[in-house]
Amino acid sequence: MSVARRAFIQMSVGATVGILFTPTVWVALDDVSIWTQNWPWIPRLKYGEVKSVPTVSKMCDSGCAVKVRTCAGEAFAVAGNEDNPLSGGGVCPLCANSAQVKNSPNRIKTPMLNGEEISWDKAKEVVAEKLDAAGSSVAVISGDQNGTVNEVFSALLADKGSDAFYMMPCDMQAADKAWTGLMGGYGQIGYDLEGADVVLLAGADALESWGPTVANLKAFAANGSGKFLFAGPMQTKTAAVADKWVPVPAEGMAAFTLGVAYYVLQAGMTVDVADFAPFRAMVMNDYSPAKVEAATGVKADRMAAIAKQLLAASNPVVVPGGSVAAHGAAFALNLLLGGAMKAVPEFGKAVSTAMSRSEMLNKDILEGVNADLLFVYEANPAYALPEQVKAGFTVAFDSVNTETTASADLVLPTLHGFERFDDLASPYGVADATYSLGVPVSKPSVNAACAATFVLGLADLGFETFEEVLEAKAEAVGADMDALAEGGAYVAPGETPVAAGLAANVLGKAAVPVKGSGALGLVPYTLLNVGTANRATTPNAPCTISNNQLLGDKMVVMMNSATAKQLGVGVGSKVKLSGGNGECEALVQVFEGVLTGAVAAPLGMGHTVGDEFSKGKGDNVYKILTVSSEAAAGASTWAGSTVNVAKI
Amino acid sequence: MEERRASKRCGGVLPFIIGFLATCVLGWAVIPGLFFDKVEQPVWFSHAVHVDGQGMDCESCHYFRDDGSYAGFPTNEVCAECHAVDPEEAMEAIAEAGIDPSDYDAIMKAEIGAIEDNLASGDDDMMAAEREYVVKYLIQGKEVPWLNYQFQPDNVYFSHAAHKDMTIEDMAELKKELSDVVDPSVFEAEEFPEQNCNLCHMKDIHLNDVPPAFQRNILSGYSKMTMKMWKCERCHALKGQPNACYTCHK
Amino acid sequence: MHVKEFKIKWGMVIDIDKCTGCGACMVGCQVENNIAPMTKSDPYNYAQALTKDRDDASNKLRTLTWMNVYELSNGKAFPEHETAYLPRPCMQCGNPACVPVCPVVATDKNEEGGIVSQIYPRCIGCRYCMAACPYHARYFNWWDPLWPEGMDKGLSPAASVRPRGVVEKCNFCHSRYMEAKNQARMDGEDPMNLSEGAYTTACQEICPTGAIHFGDLNNPEHAVHELHKSPNAFRLLEKLGLSPQVYYMSEREWVRKQGDNYNAGGSGH
Amino acid sequence: MDSKLFPEGVQRCGFGQFLIWTAVILGFFTWGLYSAVLVLYNGIGTTGLDNYFGFGAWITFDLAVIALGAGAFFTGLLKYILKIKQLEKIINLTVVVGFICYSGAMLVLTLDIGQPGRAWFGYWHPNVHSMLTEVIFCITCYCTVLIIEFIPLVLEQKQWNKIPFIHALAHNMHINMALFAGLGAFLSTFHQGSLGGMYGVLIGRPFAFREGFFIWPWTFFLFILSAVGSGPVFTVLVCGFMEKLTGKKLVDFKTKALMGKIAGTMLCVYMFFKILDTWAWANGYLPSVGLTFDQMFYGVIYGKWLLWTEIVLCGVVPAIMLITPAIRNRPALLYTAALLDCFGVCVNRYIFTVQTIAFPVMPFDAWQTYAPNWVEYASSIMIVAYGFLVLTLVYRYLPLFPQERELN
């Protein structure tokens, strides 16, 4: 061993010892651990003034009144708006994630014509040209149930001589058909859930997805002494907190309601309408408890007990869901009981040539749409109604990519709810006429525009911008624009409902349960965190979706153990559900809260377009729903859908 | 054989000592400096010009909001109260002049009236700095990415409101115990300033004309002046304040 | 058993009979506390391609949900079946199982208010606290937090973004406590005697049915003070002696029993 | 080729054969290294662990190898402190095995913690109440002790030992080895105990929680006993395996039988207390918190068979076999008993690690199951490969077995 090498080794040892006597190693160790606290690939926070700005969010069907929390002007969270009766401080799980959707990569960034990016001017040219060519063969499908944007679209249709305004299927439509159509009533039906002392939710999943959900939940919470009964084919989340769950098949809901009405009539309750006698006779003859029990499987004494509870109550209300007949039966029962059902007067129109809400609800989308030019506004018919909608040229307005925008000829990005003016006029179900306004909170982050303003540029409807329309609307409502912008709602009390008749002859026929030919009843259910027909689930919501709906990428359907035994399946079995014109794949979960002989499947999954949180997750149950015609009521319904289940 | 062994022994100590001393010197004198990058502030901001020259207060820019949060660095909105260049007007003028709005140098050279007429500075250097701020940030609607000498990472929660009533005078009693935490000269002034900023922030920053470079740790990204946890803890302990984790972390 | 007591004791009383399990609290919590949405792929990490995908939200054993809603069943067959939903934040135990086990004092119960802290920069990620917590209230960052392109600009200023490899849990939105104290200081009030509602958690604020009550259990002016003494109130796993600061309420006996099946008989451990 | 480096007077296989053998080991090692890199680069998400099973294969592996490595400190204790002369024939091997087990465990721990860059926090911010802190301290200190115990063996390498300084150093270290043996015994006893204590203190986990003595739950003492009841025979197994592999006699059977006797005695003591503990847990503690013994088990994966295997088949049976001279003195039966014993202690560590956290404490929660994925297997195999590699090199170049020359 040479001296040099040895010296080198010794020097190295010395150097090593030496460095330990300096801060170098220890500081480096410390810095490394600090580095692990602030890895450069971990996003940093931004700081600034934190504000809460009131506006409305329209992610869910009814819309939520919210306060958007911003930091340095950037929206980061959503809180409820205590000053607004639609919120009372609460938010639904979809709208709770609205700020994240605003920044989602799934936003449509710019107008697209057949997949090519185009300018807004070019888009306007294209639409104007198509509008000229289409003449009166123009249709609109709106995913907005209560916004003034519908007035603008319907006024455009009126301008072109068309009445083809369609709303996506909703209970509001069935209610309107029953109330104004069959029973000749006035106004929009509302339910005072807070003031009622007994609430029979006859198919209305009011505390999860039906109507103004957040307002319902607030009313439920505020209603300290009221009893809530839930009738439906499945123990939904509403049933979990209701005092009693009464298992009733969806197609039997009308018959069940009339079965309850039987006892109410027996107790001598009357309504002062022309066809009361035939109505009474119809119920007493055709819907005796024994007959209803035979048709629906609901025990007569169950109905008697419910009727007794309703009769004993001072302010009861029955809240229907499902078919037109179910709505009619419930309205008749409410009129008999004289309780907390309300008729909510419609607000004045901003655009004079626009349709009234009832007129907008008149057309039945389930019967099919066909037009040369179709406008789809923030709706997703290509997902929920793939077979019903046809058009020569489709213009889809939406803020995010959906099945509908993917298949549309022209895609026009709308501003996100927090970037635009919007409003909420009496969402269906509220007891009082309620008007709320939403104002922009953030600057647009993509090349989007206001859909209504775009439409106003296509025809002379008397306004230049949607903001002007909303000013006119506020004036028509009689509200103060500034107070509305600060988040307060304009409220006018609901009135006592008055009907021309009880539609005895129609109801008698329409209430007969009609079931499809499949082996099992299909119970489609909606959970807001899973999504609606128009809105897929949001980035943070999948964590809240239970393995009873989704397991991996597979949809989960639920049935009780008796049904599972009958089918020879168990927890985790893979099954194929076929019904309507389609098929779904799913895994089985045993849940005792489903009617025997029925299978419960979650709506809102199985998207083929969208972000990674919804795309390819589960299956689309809309494919296997069967549209059946309620011939007597002149409407169509999904109630009574059945499926065949095969093990795979 | 004897000789070799002797030389071996001798050689065993000397190289060792050389190595030891060399790294000791390196480790104390040279290496610590290598941990830091020097980064200049994005634009030249002179506290002296604003405070001395314009007679502004600290609170003009660094104030408490109504909710008790602290505004820290002023936003464009605050700056624009004096630097009254209308961004829209300026952008229009830039467009008219046919200049790309992201080509800062060209804009600064073009002497656009909408900008130049509203500059407040007197001498050329200051005017250049002000112009730079206006062109690069104000009219672009971008906030200036000021470098915070007292940078703290996101996991630290610091409440200015909780410290606002502390005075340097009170703290002077603890100057010995705090000698490693607070620059001792802060306690040596004849008359203590009204604000207590000097306790943690760069001393007498309001008199500063050319802001010093920000020394960024190459590994952790911290400022050389970032107050480490033990300093916060020392003072809290001395003042009888809680040192629970969530007192300062989030 | 040693229970740490403080003058202020922030606590929750959750009314199970009001909870519909809608999930708004979970979403509100994730948004407030910068919990990244669960994404399968990491476009910025090339080594991810070599191994398996990250987990998506359907894998409930890998999700990060400080607030988690459990579904309870009374175990009976149709039609006698009943369900209930039980939101589970961190229990902020008086005698936490997780605190004494942490080897590096990254979690502690040492602050006025009794909130169990969890300090991310200190945590070495040994997961001993997770093994110790019977409520599954502690979560591990299995992957780097990742927000889909552009979504990271809307982060909440309330909580630092945690790197992978550390444990985290609900802290009753602690930075809101700090903000409430700041506001009190600004208004010349006593930050150690906040009025009801001055400090709220994100889950409580967003809950549409107001099922979650929050306040100082020791302060007679706060609603939870009375609520937690209700005969229908109970705590999870009472008998293990962890002494949680989160209470539940239900009029349904089977729910109370499931919340604490150790309640029946015996003197407790 | 490298025969000059071999220990004095022994034969080793050819260099080519040695290279092939090493290459095979390195193959496994590289596979494990790849998984380790994935873990460090991507995070622990790559494993099969989850929020219910924060502890899994790695911790089980750690606890098992540390228990099996207990042969080092216990044999050291007997040899240097209690002066049982005969054990010097196997003491070198116990030290090497102990070193491999402990250093391997530490390598796995670096992977197992989410933030390896902060591993030193255990020293800088220790929580004196945490059993894990005790583990971190003792395990690192004891690993250092093992290195110190290992060094003289390395220094005795034939070529190095020719240097007078190294020769003297090795000699001096040998003389003072009793000190380190004592220190090692102290450290090791404590952390074997604190590993058990880690589970015993979990008040929220009725499966593992135990009352105890002062701050130590009973599991603290049970873990020490089970470790010393299995560590010595693990060394015997390693020795036997090496003999099979090399075709040479390395340690006389008398020594092995003595090791068996030592382990057997300790195992008997352990089984006595373990059975007592299990009984008291099932009949005393569990009912006191409203639980039953049956509720602690689930299906096949967490069935009672695990407990019976551990206590009866791999506990009582080997204990009887090892203390019965007639059985112990027959090689085949000694090895069988040793295998059962070692397997038993592994099962024990597995049950304490996994079943403890698998039991759903909240009544409405469900049992979850855990299976390690390839990443955890591969990284554990990496440590095994590392052990093989160290033993291979040590056997080839260091005078590991003082008896080798006379026995062959």
Structure commentary:
- The complex is a heterotetramer of chains A (648), B (250), C (269) and D (408).
- Chain A is α/β, with parallel strands linked by helices and 648 residues long.
- Chain A is built from 21 helices and 28 strands.
- Chain A has four domains: 3-37; 51-170 and 377-500, Rossmann fold (3-Layer(aba) Sandwich); 193-339, Dimethylsulfoxide Reductase, domain 2 (3-Layer(aba) Sandwich), CATH 3.40.228.10; 516-647, Barwin-like endoglucanases.
- In chain A, a hairpin with a 2-residue loop joins strand 2 and strand 3.
- The relative contact order of chain A is 0.15.
- The model of chain A has no long low-confidence stretch (mean pLDDT 94).
- Chain C has one domain: Alpha-Beta Plaits, CATH 3.30.70.
- Chains in contact: A-B, A-C, A-D, B-C, C-D.
- Chains A and C meet through helix 2, strand 3, helix 3, helix 7 and helix 8 of A and helix 1, strand 2, strand 3 and helix 4 of C.
What is the element layout, followed by pairings?
The complex is a heterotetramer of chains A (648), B (250), C (269) and D (408).
Chain A: H1 3-20, H2 24-37, E1 50-57, E2 64-71, E3 74-80, H3 98-102, E4 112-113, E5 116-117, H4 120-134, E6 138-142, H5 149-160, E7 164-167, H6 171-182, E8 188-191, E9 198-202, H7 213-222, E10 227-232, H8 237-241, E11 244-247, H9 253-266, H10 276-286, H11 289-296, H12 300-312, E12 316-320, H13 324-337, E13 341-344, H14 357-360, E14 369-377, H15 381-384, E15 389-398, H16 403-407, E16 410-413, E17 422-425, E18 433-438, H17 451-456, H18 466-477, H19 481-485, E19 490-492, H20 504-510, E20 520-525, E21 550-551, E22 554-559, H21 561-567, E23 574-579, E24 582-590, E25 598-602, E26 628-630, E27 635-637, E28 642-647
Parallel strand pairs in A: 6-7, 6-14, 9-10, 9-12, 10-11, 14-15, 15-16, 20-25, 22-24
Antiparallel strand pairs in A: 1-2, 2-3, 4-5, 4-16, 8-13, 17-18, 18-19, 20-28, 21-22, 23-24, 23-28, 26-27
Chain B: H1 2-34, E1 36-39, H2 47-53, H3 58-61, H4 76-79, H5 87-96, H6 104-110, H7 113-116, H8 124-138, H9 160-163, H10 168-172, E2 214-217, H11 229-238, H12 245-248
Antiparallel strand pairs in B: 1-2
Chain C: E1 10-15, H1 24-32, E2 68-73, E3 83-88, E4 107-108, E5 117-118, H2 128-132, E6 138-140, E7 167-169, H3 174-186, H4 202-206, E8 212-216, H5 223-227, E9 233-234, E10 246-249, H6 253-259
Parallel strand pairs in C: 1-10
Antiparallel strand pairs in C: 1-8, 2-3, 4-5, 6-7, 9-10
